[in-house]
Design a protein that fits this description.
single chain, about 375 residues, alpha+beta
């Protein structure tokens, strides 16, 4: 079947999808055009407004043409049109917050991987841009299924294959925990934002004590970590690496003229450690590793402090956008997210990580085996 454009899919959603609650609201031409003016104001200075890529231009043109239709249009269809334009930037921080449109959460089983990623199917349009790795888009769709599934008709879901669960039943305090695997310890950090500052500091200290006491290689598990606060990322980096060895970190606002006007970011750990932990470190990522977690990965790799394993994450090496802010569009009431900062690490351009773009459980299992094999290999007796 030929690929359908985002514009055609939005029209199909109007006709075929029985939407409940807010998503059923109808929008006038005036409301949609008010949204476009609002979007242009929100993204003033952002490269998406000056992008020359064919995908960005086509999705922008489709958005404008859709807003010029005289008849009232479905809110979800309009939300998908807005999302198609935002996701052309291939930045997961830029999206429509579809979760704000769902009145309840779906308890149905998500579609199979193949159904999720069909370019002419109804699900892929909710994912980040197609410039992001396939396994990252699939992981994002699985994570957001509870509210995306609530916006689609019952009976439209196909059977799916089993995925690999991330430590079901593991108790995380402020987003982290240490797991004893005998020959190595695993430091699980699912985000850098859970819990209040006091809770984070307490959890960090408990994990640090456990790792120091064991004094064995460490598997830093950042699977599913979508990011969070810089101060917490810096605290974890400081546990493994002296500040004098940190790669240069710089930031600039999206409307500040790019990296030529960027400023140096000083170390700002939420708390400091008295002694850097010298045990070997392997880092494990997956399709949902993003933002602050990848900046931590970059710092460890650029300094030669650790080795990376897993599958392609949601972002690239060398930097990312950050500090996203939610905005409510004045016409439709849709909520969109826009990053306000861009952070770079090191001197090189953004580049994909040298990992497989494979979301299968087999790829995840192999990544785990490779990381453990590296941690326990005989050459770890020599300093890295």
């Amino acid at each position: 079947m030929a690929r359908l454009t985002g514009f055609i899919w939005a029209l199909l959603w109007v006709a075929l999808v029985p939407i409940e609650g807010r998503a059923q609201d109808l929008l006038s031409k005036v409301q949609m055009q008010a949204d476009i003016h609002c979007l242009d104001s929100i993204f003033d200075g952002h490269e998406i407004l000056s992008a020359s890529s064919l995908l960005s231009l086509n999705s922008r043109d489709a958005l404008i043409r859709f807003s010029q239709v005289d008849s009232a249009q479905n809110q979800l269809s309009w939300g998908l049109m807005v999302h198609q334009w935002l996701r052309s930037a291939d930045d997961a921080h830029m999206r429509v917050r579809f979760e704000s449109m769902a009145d309840s959460l779906s308890t149905s089983i998500p579609p199979s991987s193949g159904e999720f990623l069909k370019e002419d199917g109804p699900w892929e349009v909710f994912a980040p841009g197609r410039g992001t790795p396939e396994c990252a888009r699939l992981a994002w769709l699985n994570k957001t299924w509870p509210w995306v599934g609530a916006l689609v008709p019952e009976g439209a879901v196909q059977a799916r294959s089993e995925g690999m669960a991330l430590d079901d039943g593991l108790v995380l305090k402020a987003g982290m925990a240490v797991v004893d695997h005998g020959a190595f310890m695993r430091w699980v950090i699912r985000d850098f934002s859970s819990g209040k500052p006091k809770a984070f500091k307490g959890s960090f200290r408990r994990c640090a004590r456990a790792l120091r006491k064991a004094d064995v290689p460490v598997l830093l598990d950042l699977r599913g970590n979508l990011g969070g606060f810089r101060t917490r990322r810096h605290a974890v980096l400081g546990f493994f690496l002296a500040q004098s060895d940190w790669p240069e970190e710089r930031e600039a606002g999206h409307n500040e003229g790019g990296l030529e006007s960027s400023r140096l970011v000083p170390p700002m750990p939420a708390l400091r450690v008295s002694k850097v932990h010298s045990a070997p470190v392997a880092v494990l990522v997956d399709g949902l590793s993003f933002s602050a977690s990848l900046l931590l990965v970059d710092a460890l790799l650029m300094s030669g402090r650790g080795a990376l394993f897993g599958v392609q994450p949601l972002g690239q090496s060398g930097g990312c956008s950050g500090s996203p802010v939610d905005h409510t569009l004045t016409g439709s009431g849709l909520v969109v997210t826009c990053p306000t900062l861009r952070t770079t690490l090191g001197a090189g351009p953004l580049a994909p990580y040298g990992l497989p773009d494979d979301a299968s459980p087999e790829a995840g299992n192999q990544a785990w085996k490779n990381a453990v094999r590296w941690l326990l290999s005989a050459d770890l007796a020599t300093p890295r």
